[in-house]
Amino acid sequence: MSTTRRTPTIQDVARFAQVSTATVSRALSSPERVSQDTRLRISEAVLATGYTLNQAARSLRQRTSKTILVALPDIRNIFFSAILDAIEREATRRGYSTLVCNRCSGPNPARQLGEYFRSHRADGLLLLDGALNLSHLLELAGEPTDVPLVVACEDIPDAPFHTVKTDNARAAASATQHLINLGHTRIGHIAGPLGNVLRDERLEGFRQAIHDAGLYVRPDWIFPGNFQMESGFAAGLDYLAGTDRPTAMFAANDEMAIGFLSALREKGLECPRDISVVGFDDLAVAVHYSPPLTTIRQPREKLGQMAAQMLIGLLEGRAVEPRRVVLRSELILRSSTARFHSPPG
Ligand code: RIB
Fold this sequence. Notes:
Blueprint: H1 10-17, H2 21-29, H3 36-49, H4 55-62, E1 67-72, H5 79-93, E2 97-102, H6 109-118, E3 124-127, H7 134-141, E4 149-152, E5 162-166, H8 168-181, E6 187-190, H9 197-212, E7 222-223, H10 229-241, E8 248-251, H11 254-266, E9 276-278, H12 284-288, E10 295-297, H13 300-315, E11 324-327, E12 330-332
Parallel strand pairs: 1-2, 1-3, 3-4, 4-5, 5-11, 6-7, 6-8, 8-9
Antiparallel strand pairs: 10-12
Helix pairs in contact: 1-2, 1-3, 5-13, 6-7, 8-9, 10-11
The structure holds alpha-D-ribofuranose.
């Protein structure tokens, strides 16, 4: 006697869920087009019958993968985890999957990324990496690939693409202004990586606030960094080697602020007694650090969610307006900053 089981079909799912095969097909390809109740019944039926959708076959048939490609500059940067999480949740809610491409800014990223689209593995690109060359991106978005594209987080100046970002320069100015309000006049900055648009915007905001307060930006108090903790630590060592030092530091991200503080602690300096420090991002660790870090909170979940909504809108042929969204960040006051007291004596 044969024990071979018949492969479940879409008809089996429809029969189990008591809906038509067209409804099952719609629920599987565009879940947002069926009611939640029907979606649930069909999910149960899929599980009960053991039906598996052949994604590759479906892609070939429909020339669509219902997948968005997310291009990241550096997956090791935990800043991106909350953004990716929000993108993934929003995509799933709307019936899409996500694929991640890390460090795609090689010699010809348009070709590298374009391969995902030529092979129908993704339908649209959500670009979080501002280092890509504009002409390469225009090539990707133009014929024959015609890739729908949304830029998020790291802006690409002068690019005609839909964009969601945060107000980096204004937020950096507010972080610096907070230090000025506490009576600090000797303020340094740990900058982001050269060539990164966010480095420029945050440095610009810092400079603006210093100038507006009638203070002077000391070039030797702008410490180089690359958004990684080690570069903050190196900035700390440079700081300690100096004789004429700032009393407050604005770091262009939390990781560098934490690295900086760890270098100072090794030499017995205390924050905020000896120096006030502000970060940028409000990573989960910022509130639990010792001392808890004053920082700029970027609305990362909102940024990821809006970027995914925009891209899916484009993929589904809707008019997506406005083309450019700038979300507001917030200064979060904690214990790493304190009023300036001149040293005794
Ligand atoms: O480049 C993306 C993010 O990485 C920036 O917002 C910055 O804060 C860094 O952590």
